Structure formats: C-alpha cells, structure tokens
Amino acid sequence: MKKILPLSHPQHIILGLALVGIGLILIYNDFYFFWPPFAASFLNDDLIGGTFMIIGILVIKWALDDRNEIAVNRNLLIITAGLLALESTIEFCNGFVSGQPHMYTAGFVEAIVLLFDFSIIGKSKKRNY
Asked: Whole-model pTM?
C-alpha cells in the first residue's frame, strides 16, 4: 500500500476523516442533542459540527504537507482531544437521560477515537531535535 500511496502520517488522516464524519453528522442533524436543556441549542448549532470539520481538514492537511511543523501538530491534536472528550461526555449524558442505546454506542466510539488521538499524541515528536 505504501508503494501506491506513500503517506508519512496515515493515522492523522484516519483521525481527520473521523472528525470530518462527526462534523457532518452534527451539521445535518439539528436535533441530535436534547440534554442538558439549557445547552441543547448551542450543542446542536452548526458551529460545533463546523469546528469538527475544520479541525479534521486541518489534521489531514498537516499529514499531507511537506513541512509538518511539530507545534501545529501538537496544537491540532490537543484541540481534537478536547473536542472528542466533550462530544463523548455529551453522548454518554444524553444516553443516560434518554436510555437510547445508540447514544451510548456513539459515546463509546468517540471515546475510542479519543484514545486513538492519545496514541497519536504519545507517538508524535515533541521537539524539533
């Protein structure tokens, strides 16, 4: 596969595609979150889904770029971890309140993607030397 498509950071591309997918789901479903009631309108805003998409595109762009600045990678992965932690927590809370199993499943999958992000953070370069 590396001979056909030489990628130096395939894990970043997988993570970026996951973020873009989550962003698309959140943009196209305006009534996805319902709890907590005071934050439902904010959480269902297209800005949240758009943020996921933008960060996902930036992660993919970083992986395909030739320069690959370490500070940019570190910042993108930390922002990704924060977004995924927030999303996973909200999914579990909505699942607990509603008892809908698909909310638990989505929260569990997003927690796994968060662990995948932590794995990438652990393996990434921390300094320029």
From this structure: 0.90
